[in-house]
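pinging the channel bc i need a second pair of eyes. not urgent but kinda urgent?? the chain im working w is below, pasted from the shared doc
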Amino acid sequence: KIAQQPSVSMLNFTGSYGDPIYHTRLVDIVKIAKRYNKRVHITTNGSYRKAEWWEELGNALTKYDTVTFSVDGLEHNNHIYRVNADWPSIETGMRTLAKHKNNIFTEWKWILFNHNENDVTKGYDLSKEIGIMDFTVVETSRWSKGQQAIRPYSDVLEELKNHIESKKNGN
């Protein structure tokens, strides 16, 4: 009797040893995956790609796919943890995919640090202005050169929850 191999339904491109968007053939790989009806999830910081590249990626992805932008702050502080990040190109990628005709699911994942903990509500507002579908704040225990958030994670989440509620109520 021959054991059946499990079926793979989703390919997850994440940066264990670098950002997946820097692979020279990522878009080609995504196109092949889509040819075989595979869902795709890409996690990226989003730096240093031009709008044309994002558009090509967006044309390859569908509404069943996800792109998570790991962006830990705003223009003035994202680069503190994401060394050498390039804000204009990050925002270009976010805006291109968020407005893409294929309705790709987009997420902004924000790791909480002391240099960005007071900007979470501004990040949320920007994510909505751009058109990002989901905004997630993540607590971390990563080694971060003393950058751990000063305020408790639960306090930041409560502040964000209250901010979102006030936006829903028109404030």
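so Strands lie at 10-13, 39-44, 66-70, 105-111, 134-138. and The first helix runs from residue 26 to 35. — does that match what u expected or am i reading it wrong
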